[in-house]
Specification:
By secondary structure, the protein is of the alpha+beta class. It has helices spanning 2-49, 110-119, 121-169, 175-192, and strands spanning 53-54, 62-68, 74-77, 89-95, 99-106. Strands 1-3-2-5-4 form a 5-stranded mixed sheet. This is Sensor histidine kinase.
């Protein structure tokens, strides 16, 4: 019954850790979406004003290029002229009535997620607290089970020592048989002795 309770406690705390990861990751995605939408809206507003090379607020998140069909005029974000690592970006191309839109959006990166969590103290605290709680409860309950197992080994060890004492007491009565029996008991004690920590 106790082991079942501890198992449910471990599962509950593991669920708590997973929930804190989920909360922080969804917040990271919301922040990332906010940056992408800010870039797109800035691009559209500046394009309407007639700027050809548009500076985006978050240039590491998106690269946008728009080409008009009849005139061939090109509007692009300022980061579109530099080298682009295509493995880090997913892209979409849309043909519209008045032109073609090319948009590169940075893929989700675990390092970006960890940087986001480290910058936000709420999510850092939530993750660290849940992990520490889980690991501490896990450690102490495992130690308790190890001590309980060690207690059973100690009882068995004590019964073997009592048998050895009884054999030593009878050594004067039956000397040869007692010595052989004592050797067997000592061998079994050495075989089943509790490990020292």
């Amino acid at each position: 019954m106790r082991k079942l309770f501890v198992l449910f406690l471990w599962l509950f705390l593991l669920l708590f850790v997973v929930a804190s990861l989920y909360i922080s990751f969804t917040s990271y995605l919301a922040s990332r979406d906010r940056m992408i939408l800010t870039n797109v809206s800035t691009f559209l507003l500046k394009m309407r004003e007639g700027e050809r090379r548009i500076q985006l607020p978050y240039p590491d998140q998106t690269v946008i290029v728009y080409t008009e069909k009849p005139s061939g005029e090109r509007y692009m974000s300022a980061n579109a002229t530099g080298p682009l690592d295509r493995d880090k970006y997913s892209y979409v191309t849309r043909s519209l009535r008045s032109g073609t839109l090319y948009m590169y959006v940075r893929k989700i990166d675990p390092l970006d997620y960890l940087l986001f969590v480290s910058r936000e103290p709420l999510y850092t605290g939530l993750l660290v607290a849940s992990l520490l709680l889980y690991l501490s409860i896990f450690y102490f309950t495992v130690r308790e089970f190890e001590l309980a197992q060690g207690g059973r080994l100690t009882e068995e060890f004590l019964s073997r020592v009592k048998a050895l004492r009884l054999t030593l007491a009878t050594v004067k009565v039956l000397p040869e048989e007692s010595v052989n029996e004592m050797k067997k008991v000592v061998d079994s004690i050495l075989k089943y002795r509790p490990s020292k920590k």
